[in-house]
Amino acid sequence: MSNGQNAGIDEDQCAQLAKDNGWLWNRAERASNTLILAHGAGAPMDSAFMNDMAARLAGQGVNLLRFEFPYMAQRRIDGRKRPPNQQAQLLECWRQVYASLRPHVSGSLAIGGKSMGGRMASLVADEMGADALVCLGYPFYAAGKPEKPRVAHLAELHTPTLIVQGERDALGNRETVDGYVLSNSIELLWLPTANHDLKPLKASGVTYEQCLANTAQRIAQFLLVE
Asked: How many structural domains is the chain composed of?
């Protein structure tokens, strides 16, 4: 569908916006929603996981825009690994990306991301008025520090939210997360025996492919309702 509106989306403008900024745009054939998906702390917007999830979601009718935080964009230029920017800069980057895309999407526009990208999105979702929030492997606490949870804002979150989490995620396992007080706007999809990358143990009888397929399908369903 070219030069037209697809579920309230100016597709040509979205594609051009992505091209101009060095972002990635995955267009769905019969899109019902659009999702901005941010990468995690250590992997870029075109990592194997991000590419796979973007393709799966586009196949489920969700348009995808991917971008990179400043530190990761700089790594792409000079090849040097560096830590994430300060939180204030990451949040400002989110605001800028959202503000750039919002005028071209009159329909539903959701935000989210993998790990750190999803956590940063959760901190600005209410402020920006996002229609929904999707987090893949949410870092409820730093590795090895479950006694220092990063969940205070999640108790007050108003944006409809879906968190897809592995039951044995080292940054938020089921036993620990079940003890948190979270907003009623948050829905948790637990993947049996899966880790932070949503990959299950072989002994579970569930394959990684099945986990990813289930994740994409649930996200598409969630966004359709929201």
From this structure: 1
How many CB atoms within 10 Å of residue 189? Answer: 15
Residue 21 domain flag: yes
Q: Which domain holds residue 136?
A: 11-225
User: Three-state SS string across the chain, please?
Assistant: CCCCECCCEEHHHHHHHHHHHCCEEECCCCCCEEEEEECCCCCCCCCHHHHHHHHHHHHCCEEEEEECCHHHHHHHHHCCCCCCCCHHHHHHHHHHHHHHHHHHECCCEEEEEECHHHHHHHHHHHHHCCCEEEEECCCCCCCCCCCCCCCHHHHCCCCCEEEEEECCCCCCCHHHHCCCCCCCCEEEEEECCCCCCCCCCHHHCCCHHHHHHHHHHHHHHHHHHC
Using a cut of 0.85, tell me whether the model's pTM lies above it.
yes
What is the Cα–Cα distance from 215 to 11, expressed in whole angstroms? 25
Domain harbouring 171, CATH code: 3.40.50.1820
Q: Residue 6 falls within a domain, yes or no?
A: no
Q: What pLDDT does 106 receive?
A: 84
Asked if the structure places residue 207 within a domain, the reply is yes
In a domain, 30, yes or no: yes
Amino acid, single-letter form, for residue 210? Q
Q: What is the pLDDT of residues 103-157, one digit of tens each?
A: 999 889 999 999 999 999 999 999 999 999 999 999 999 999 999 999 999 999 9
